[in-house]
Amino acid sequence: MHREIDTLIITPEDMGRIDRAAAASGLSSYGLMERAGQAVAAAALRRFPGARRFAVLCGPGNNGGDGYVAARALQAAGADVALHALGDPLSLKGDAASARGRFEGDVAPLADYVPRAGDVVIDALFGAGLARDLPEEAARVIAAVRGNALPVLAVDLPSGVDGRTGKVRGAAFEAVATVTFMCRKPGHLLLPGKALAGAVEVFDIGIPARILAGHAGHMRVNAPAVWRAALPAQTGETHKYVRGHLAVFSGPATATGAARLSAAAGLRAGAGLVTLLSPADALSANAAHLTGVMLKCVDGEADLAALLEDERLKTFVLGPGFGHADKARRHVRLLAEKGRHLVLDADGISAFRDDADMLFQLFADGPARLVLTPHDGEFTRLFPDLAGDKALSKIERAQQAAARANAAVILKGADTVIAAPDGRVLVNENAPPWLATAGSGDVLAGIVGAHLAHGMPAFEAAAGAVWRHGEAGRIADEGLTAEDLPCAIPPWPRD
Predict the structure, then answer these.
(1) Distance between CA atoms of 104 and 96, rounded to whole angstroms?
(2) For residue 173, which of 79, 84, 57, 82 has the smallest C-alpha distance?
(3) How far apart, in whole angstroms, are the C-alpha atoms of residue 451 and residue 459?
């Protein structure tokens, strides 16, 4: 079971405040650096027992200080160490200067490093706080290391990766593994930093959890510990209507499969009843493929208005394969006016590309009743200014979008981000790469719909759905198709 701090994601700015608070509490800041460097050395020896030489590359700040400690520990273990520094080592200050002073070996300029066979590079040039492009001298060394295909162990984060955004600042190391301290940073979880960091080891260097929690924001890794308390209760009085009735809108006769995937996923994910709302021309196509999912003809607003007289029907999925933008907007308006919960996906999102404010106004009041599930292209259609702002991280884009739309936003991708209107945000990490297949998003929309139908709040419903969707991908395994996913949706993780 996760401890709360195991799910924390800390920005570099917040980590700086945590370091200062730890020092103010009486902890030795040099003692923290010593433990960090020793952890790097231990990871290097464990991961690379056959290394002929460890090339430790030290930068001009505290990340470089960690590198000096690691180099000293490696020497003490009998390893061959070559240390190269960026800048003048004599200009180091504070703890980094102390670490440099305790290293008794030679320190050569970074520019003098010549990669050779058998080297393992320990990258202690720049950590997660990097917010500018790498100097040319460092970029040249990165190119040389890449050209010789040498393994890299990164300290905190591969140099060149922005810890706040995960973006590359001119050039970056590609690490086999990264050793970071206390908590992961956004750059460990957001692309391309996620791909460049390799296997991330989080080492506890002794900062108390109370200090971490006191200075952390609202970012977490998406894990059951975060949303388990919002899971629907199971009692002896549970029946199908208690578990919720989910309705999924179908597209026309030539595009019915996406909605059926959503409906099947909703049923498997725990909705008590699922009804597919089909235009008349698609009834035969849908009826030929449905068993546990019910079927209802909804051809226009009059049919939908009549359906909404049933107060037990509170949750809808609109978008997968829907196709008709004008009809989508009319349906969404009616659902919003009647106070229903809505998962808006795919064509449903694109229907508002020319009038996003209309959508946001419809759901502006009260607790979030809307869940948006865009990939990057669909996100751009609703939030072109946020998508075009290169200074924002994916986390920040999702947070601002959720606040603007008063919706839970699932910004999809290999680094899916889930955001709430109040600023809470999760980054998902359990989805395997083979989950990127046609129809996978339709399944996700259905799972979200089932959770909303259960009565879960929008943010928790979205987060739990993304996690179960990722687990379904793992269970179905490589080579899956979207049709495999509903049957692979795991039970709720209640323990």
Answers:
(1) 14
(2) 57
(3) 10
CA-nearest of 128, 186, 93 to 415 is 186
Contact 193, 187 (CB under 8 A): yes
What angle do the packed helices 29-47 and 62-76 form, to 10 degrees?
50
Print burial letters for 248-276: b (CB count within 10 Å at least 16), e (below 16): bbbbeeebbbbbbbbbbbbbbbbbbbbbb
Query: Is pTM beyond 0.70 here?
Result: yes
168-215: pLDDT as tens digits? 999 999 999 999 999 999 999 999 999 999 999 999 999 999 999 888
